[in-house]
Automatic annotation (TrEMBL):
Superkingdom of this protein's organism: Bacteria
Keywords assigned: Repeat, TPR repeat
InterPro entries: TPR-like_helical_dom_sf, TPR_rpt, Ycf3
UniProt-listed PROSITE patterns: TPR
Protein name according to UniProt: Tetratricopeptide repeat protein
Keyword Protein transport belongs to the record: no
TPR repeats: 145-178
Length: 188
């Protein structure tokens, strides 16, 4: 079977476009931090319910690490990698990444990141550091019950029952559902 000249040209053009795209994509992969960031985001999306979640998360961590290596000030990569470390219960690495994200992110994002870091400090038993982050966050968002209840739990763990109860009552006033989460506070 002999191909028509016009069809042959079209096939050659198509092959050229495909190979050019692959070559450009390969170069971008080597040079662009956003490539690794986006690749990790895609993999994270497919992982819920997957029996290999840990390995998928670890491969995402490697991709975020490559993005950070190419762009050491990549706030989003630090923040997303911190979330993955949290899911894997690797709180020391989560803490490091949240601290780096706070360092490089815009001021508006820093509040949320400080709140996340306060929770990480709590899980690591670093209650005073957790309180410090809550103290820096609360003045900017005084209507968040979870900030007060988080700080109350830290005060409680440190034996500062009066401060814990004050924060618990503020949290309860902002959100009555806080009463359902009352694990160890007894502020009657």
């Amino acid at each position: 079977m002999k191909l028509q000249p016009k069809l042959t040209i079209n096939l050659c053009l198509l092959l050229f476009l495909i190979t050019s795209t692959i070559a450009v994509y390969g170069q971008r992969k080597k040079k662009d931090a956003n490539y690794y960031f986006n690749e990790a985001l895609i993999r994270e999306k497919v992982s819920p319910g997957n029996p290999y979640v840990d390995s998928i998360f670890r491969s995402c961590i490697k991709l975020y690490s490559k993005a950070i290596k190419l762009n050491p000030r990549f706030c989003g990569a630090y923040a997303n990698r911190a979330w993955l470390y949290s899911e894997l219960k690797d709180y020391k690495n989560e803490l490091y990444d949240l601290t780096q994200a706070i360092r490089y992110c815009a001021p508006a994002e820093k509040l949320m990141l400080r709140e996340l870091r306060a929770g990480t400090y709590y899980r690591l038993g670093q209650y005073k550091n957790s309180i410090r982050d809550y103290n820096q966050t609360i003045p900017f968002d005084k209507n968040q019950a979870n900030l007060y209840s988080g700080r109350a739990m830290c005060y409680w763990k440190l034996g500062e029952k009066d401060k814990a109860c004050i924060d618990y009552k503020k949290a309860l006033g902002l959100d009555p559902k806080v009463a359902e989460d009352k694990e160890f506070l007894d502020c009657n």
